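Ops channel
N.P.: pipeline sanity check, posting one input/output pair.
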């Protein structure tokens, strides 16, 4: 059985606040440019996962990982 916060789809104000506290406005602007939405559109589970990764690895590592995964995806979708 999953954790109770996993059943919550919409991001909570405390989780959104923590994510924005952990990251600066430039990162959120970069995120919106990359994905077309800001942090308020993340699910609770997505935001908690990102917060956990920031705590473990740091902001730069999280951003670098996102960029690397996106490049891998683009590379695999080419004919």
């Amino acid at each position: 059985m999953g954790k109770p916060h996993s059943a919550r789809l919409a991001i909570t104000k405390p989780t959104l606040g923590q994510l924005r506290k952990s990251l600066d406005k430039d990162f959120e602007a970069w995120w919106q440019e990359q994905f077309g939405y800001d942090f308020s559109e993340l699910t609770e589970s997505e935001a908690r996962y990102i917060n956990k990764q920031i705590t473990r690895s740091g902001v730069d590592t999280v951003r670098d990982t996102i960029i690397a995964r996106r490049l891998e995806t683009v590379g695999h979708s080419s004919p």
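N.P.: looks fine end to end. The mean pLDDT is 88.
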